[in-house]
């Protein structure tokens, strides 16, 4: 009855990656700069687990003598810094050719017009922007005209925002499904439905967001687990990021508290297999909005749940907590950052084991595949021998 539990703290970067300069992210440090901005961290459970040990420079969180978890950091090997490639790499595949971005130019007219013609809607915007900012800027016109708001970012994302009174959820999803079909030939990583509610000056995005990703280019840990007859439980936006591939159960969530509750519920019911959770609030609610105080509050939420997560583990469970990229909320940009991500491991004999700085996220997949006796991923070095 072996199980692997993976919890992705979306955007929880742990210091600039060795190649951060290549991505314009020199000096980025999501955790370190957030700690400085809030006057120091008080995260007792993360501290005991070894978060201060793996980072080494967190104000208010010095290293501890005997961490309760194994600890280290992962550098991304894929040629990107977005959620899709980050999750795929954690699951065992590296993306060597990055998805195309349209940060400087907006999307080509021929792509936009093709989607407009098939859906019957026209778009306004079509430039790189913070989602909350562009909704405030163009939301009033959108409500008056019925035109949909189109925008992108430094990531390969085709984002469509619509007020639920203008394009109800099912209609917005239909439009995004059409867009996904057209975006494939432009190698755009994700089409994202961004529904919102409210009035001008009081617009609010909702958790009915839905991502339409390109399918993984190779089999992942999830595919192998499902093929072996194991349960593969995807919580949060995991289903979206893997285009439904390799999952036996899909659970949508509304924020990190809900996601953590659903993870603990799954740990009480799922037998052998994989539980894979994305906690989106650090990124979506705080990182992209340059809000270090909110980011700290989001970390506190996860910190409070750590003892419950560990208590829910069985004797043959491995729990890995990590991230998919950074999103430094103090750097003056709303974009993701190229950083190391934390590696915290509970279960077996992992407590106190230093796993060091590792060259690829796929070491997680290699380790869990070995534990579950599944085919090894195409890349990755297992650290299972270090923690048992």
Kindly report the spatial arrangement of strands forming the biggest sheet: 10-9-11-1-12-13-2-14
- The CATH architecture of the largest domain: 3-Layer(aba) Sandwich
So what's the oligomer here?
Answer: single chain
Class computed from helices, strands and strand pairing: alpha/beta
Principal-axes geometry comes out as globular
Mean pLDDT across all amino acids: 97
Low-confidence stretches: none
Number of domains: 2
What share of the residues does DSSP label as strand, in percent?
15-25%
Protein traits:
single chain, alpha/beta, Alkaline Phosphatase, subunit A, Alpha-Beta Plaits, 8-stranded mixed beta sheet, 6-stranded mixed beta sheet, globular
Can you describe this structure?
This protein is of the alpha/beta class. It folds into 2 domains: 3-98 and 215-387, Alkaline Phosphatase, subunit A; 109-213, 2-Layer Sandwich (Alpha-Beta Plaits), CATH 3.30.70.1250. It is built from 14 helices and 14 strands. The strands form 2 sheets. Strands 10-9-11-1-12-13-2-14 form an 8-stranded mixed sheet, with helices on both faces. Strands 3, 4, 5, 6, 7 and 8 form a 6-stranded mixed sheet that branches. Strand 4 and strand 5 form a beta hairpin. Helix 1 (30-37) crosses helix 12 (292-311) and helix 5 (109-119) crosses helix 7. The longest helix is centred in the C-terminal third of the chain and has 20 residues, at 292-311. It is globular, with a radius of gyration of 20 Å. The model has no long low-confidence stretch (mean pLDDT 97).
Question: What's this model, at a glance?
Answer:
This protein is an alpha/beta fold and 388 residues long.
């Amino acid at each position: 009855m072996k199980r692997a539990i993976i919890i992705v703290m979306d955007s929880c970067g742990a210091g600039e990656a060795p190649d951060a300069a290549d991505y314009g992210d020199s000096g980025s440090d999501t955790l370190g700069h957030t700690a400085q901005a809030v006057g120091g961290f008080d995260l007792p459970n993360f501290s005991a687990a070894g978060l201060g040990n793996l980072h080494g420079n967190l104000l208010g969180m010095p290293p501890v003598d005997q961490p309760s978890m194994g600890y280290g950091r992962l550098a991304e090997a894929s040629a990107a810094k977005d959620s899709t490639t980050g999750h795929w790499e954690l699951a065992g595949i590296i993306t060597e050719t990055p998805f195309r971005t349209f940060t400087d130019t907006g999307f080509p007219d021929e792509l936009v017009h093709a989607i407009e013609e098939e859906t019957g809607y026209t778009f306004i915007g079509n430039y790189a922007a913070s989602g909350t900012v562009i909704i405030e800027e163009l939301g009033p016109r959108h409500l008056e005209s019925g035109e949909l708001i189109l925008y992108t970012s430094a990531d390969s994302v085709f984002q469509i925002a619509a007020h639920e009174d203008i394009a109800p959820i099912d209609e917005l999803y239909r439009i995004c499904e059409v867009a996904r079909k057209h975006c494939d030939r432009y190698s755009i990583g994700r089409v994202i439905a961004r529904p919102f509610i409210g009035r001008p000056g009081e617009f609010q995005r909702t958790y009915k967001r839905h991502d339409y990703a390109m399918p993984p280019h190779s089999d992942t840990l999830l595919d192998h687990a499902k093929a072996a007859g194991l349960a593969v439980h995807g919580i949060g936006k995991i289903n979206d990021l893997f285009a439904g591939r390799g999952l036996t159960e899909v659970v949508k969530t509304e924020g990190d508290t809900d996601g953590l509750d659903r993870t603990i519920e799954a740990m009480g019911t799922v037998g052998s297999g994989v539980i894979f959770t994305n906690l989106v609030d650090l990124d979506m609610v705080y990182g992209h909005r340059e809000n270090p105080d909110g980011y700290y509050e989001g970390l506190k939420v996860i910190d409070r749940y750590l003892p419950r997560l560990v208590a829910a583990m069985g004797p043959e469970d491995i729990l890995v907590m990590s991230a998919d990229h950074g999103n430094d909320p103090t750097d003056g940009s709303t974009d993701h950052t190229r950083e190391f991500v934390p590696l915290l491991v509970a279960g077996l004999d992992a407590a106190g084991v230093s796993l060091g700085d590792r060259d690829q996220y796929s070491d997680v997949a290699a380790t869990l595949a070995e534990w579950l006796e599944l085919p090894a991923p195409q890349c990755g070095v297992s650290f299972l021998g270090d923690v048992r």
